[in-house]
Give the backbone structure.
Amino acid sequence: MAKFYVTTPIYYVNDVPHIGHAYTTVAADILARFNRLLGKEVFFLTGTDEHGQKVQKAASERGLTPREYADRMVENFRGLWKRLNISNDAFIRTTDGEHVRVVQEVLQTLYDRGEIVKRPYRGWYCVPDERFWTGKEIVDGNCPECGRPVEELEEENYFFLMSRYRERLIRHIEDNPGYILPETRRNEVMGFLTSRELGDLCISRPRKRLSWGIPLPFDEDYVTYVWFDALLNYYSATRYLAPPSGRGWWPAEHHIVGKDILTTHAVYWSTMLMALGMELPGNIFAHGWCTVEGRKMSKSLGNVVDPLEVIDRYGVDAFRYFLFREVPFGLDGDFSADALVARINSDLANDLGNLVSRSVTMTRRYFGGEVPEPTGVEAEAKGLAEGLLERVRRRMERLAFQKALEEIWTLVAYLNKYIDTNQPWALSRDPSKRDRLGTVIYTVLEGVRFLAVHLRPFMPGSSEEICRQLGLDGPVEDLAGLRWGGLKPGTRLPKPRPLFPRIKPGEPPAGGEGPEGRSLIGIDDFAKLELRVGRVSRAERIKGSDKLLRLEVDLGETRQIVAGIGRAYEPEDLVGKRVVVVANLRPARLMGVESRGMLLAAGEGDELSLITPEREVGEGTRVR
Ligand code: MSP
């Protein structure tokens, strides 16, 4: 059996995941699922990058060890992947003991072979940011990131002799046109390699400046540079996380990365593998950037889109579909709620959803809900359906997800048109056309089955639901074995459910609220909110929940409020604190405890900070 190994970057564990991270991971998931359906043995790896300055700093600010902090933050990623229906086979963390051992083993090997040497290193150091810049990077003697003055510093460090591999790397890229894709990115890497000297790579950090890293096995005064450690995850995972496989899992078929980290992969990682005498991966694919309503996503612009919110409002599969239908994989793409709603309404509700519901409804109406026996084979429909796999496969080999979806939609469009042309409703009125009606309905249902299977990698949940509506249970057939005529006459179809309800433009879908930034409110809307300053007089944990606290808050009168801040605050730290309360909120019960109001806090997930007035103000004072 052919093997297929695909990876995502390992994400910085201190980040809260956003749609950019989701984008990469869903892409890898689509590939993994597609290749499983082709009958390959698949290993799909994702994970988190947990060493380095930022993690160390964030942890110490919270009074946690870096590992404790990472243990909490990693759940954000795991939770999101679950909600997004990601089918990863393993999840690697660079703090795993096994990974650390592989990194040290590799360092020792390279050191013993003379591929790593110690040299003086000169650079510009930003003390508050605790990081080095090169002379080219600094701006008028200041740190390019924070703008504060930098100082020139010289220290000894270990270097991986990357420059030795420049020629070989250029040749490899020339000889293997699919090594770096898309082609524009490949050309950029070639430009980078051919237009200048390739330097050596500093792979150590003195432990006195950075302690949260993997110690160099040959010099305990240093830890490993995070990127050197991180890139090795792709290999170390094959040593302890991959299922046993006769041929071994290395090399990977695809590394999927964002364009921001192409150089580290195409240059650092490739040359590291060369120095180790290991095979290079089959392909490094650098996709484009997700922007939001035309702008770069950033915390300071406040436009970071939380994938969980999008899923809650529009559904996982609509989101997965949108990400890969709207823009060719490789180019930058824009996310906006309006564009998403437009796609849901046209492609999903109108084209696909309608097709499924029409075919099931007609089967119920004309054949009592049982798949009819066809009296002939519709050659055109059969040809189109059976030819789909080849066309989709060709697109998927180049990671052209958008084109693959377009191919699938040609069958959606064909079947909708087939219904309109054959007018089953007219056939049903003429008893002599009963056989023809059976063939027409069978053809549509069988076509829908082909669609469900081809859609499985992109929209796994909806694909399953379509199969359920066709009365099929059990695992979906593998793609290669899919044959026209597989749907058995006589199969009973259960009651259908709408797959993708239409969303009125400008209105939130049922049960949700307007996506961020879409619905502006007037001052009178704001006036409906009664915000008041309160003072916490009692606080205790609610049994059975690590998140919920029962508070008594003095607003002039005493209120019982249940607040979800138990992972951010200890009850005893809250007593006496001034807080801002939404005072006219309808009462609610949480874990059986009544809550009359809500505290305001800023932040995401468990990283919450209570809002408190900056000066002394009395209990019950209105906030406006
Ligand atoms: N830890 C490194 C990667 C090490 S891999 C050996 C890192 N992590 S990261 O958390 O910053 O994630 C980087 C990846 O997230 C990008 O390469 C890209 O795949 C994805 N994205 C992050 N922001 C993105 C967008 N705005 N748009 C699209 N993808 C983006 O770098």
Residues 9-12, 15, 20-21, 23-24, 49, 230-231, 233, 257-258, 260-261, 289-290, 297 surround 5'-O-[(L-methionyl)-sulphamoyl]adenosine (CB under 6 Å). Residues 269 and 294 are 32 Å apart (CA to CA). The chain is about 40% helix and 20% strand.
